[in-house]
Amino acid sequence: MTESPEDLAVALDAVGYLADEGLATAGFLAMRLHRPLFCEGEPGTGKTSLALALASALDLPLVRLQCHEGIDAAQALYEWDFPRQLLHLRALEAAEGGRLDAETAERSLYTERFLLARPLLRALTTAPCVLLIDEIDRADDEFEAFLLELLDEYTVTIPEYGEIRAETPPLVVLTSNRTREVHDALKRRCLYHWLEHPDLPREVQILRRRIPGVSEAMAEQVAEAVHRLRAMELLKPPGTAESLDWARALLALGRDELDAAAAARTLGAVLKYSEDLDRVRAKLDALFA
Prior knowledge:
This protein is of the alpha/beta class and 289 residues long. The chain has helices spanning 5-14, 21-33, 47-58, 73-76, 82-95, 102-109, 119-126, 141-153, 184-188, 200-210, 216-231, 240-252, 260-266, 274-281, 284-287; strands at 37-41, 62-66, 78-80, 115-117, 130-134, 155-158, 162-165, 171-176, 191-195.
């Protein structure tokens, strides 16, 4: 049971996600008020992981919609299974000996039997669940507009079928890396939380919690190095996901400490642009002095 933000923080901690007071409060209010939670922040700050952790902590199924340019309602909500509808029509025609009543046949085509539920419809019909609408900033304005009714009422209308309403509103988490501004109309329907990179002590805790076998000293070295990298003017500063990858890479190589030599071999786990690699390699000795 999560009767307070503190309860939710404890539940998330139990599944390996360390939420600070602000994030735990935002998540609790989203649950209590049945409002979507809009999480914005730099890549790698734990926005997507929050939704996964909420599903695990609350023992709810996770339904994920990955947004991309050009995504439309058919990809996100539902489609009709046209091949099966065609087979159904042929079967009806054969059974009726060619005397098929057109109106009856048409009605039989638009039933749940031929409805292919995509993530949004699946979330409405299987709630309670956690619905992750990931990277909404990659979708087009038209798709944002389409989401407004759904997030207002947790209801959709399918012209040939009718209205579908969630008996229990799903817990909705929207994420954005802020590659573009999301429209105010969508934000107004949500609770908003900006996620920062964790401070040094919290990042050490995350590494210790998420990677069995990593030592306290190794976790501190990786976290400190990542924080120093974030202070540099890099094209893509590393997020928490990269911290975890770096520590895992070092462990896979049998390393028990992070020094300049080990960093030089494993920078590809934490940096993703050649310009960043060149800049950091030129300063490795100073970074680990």
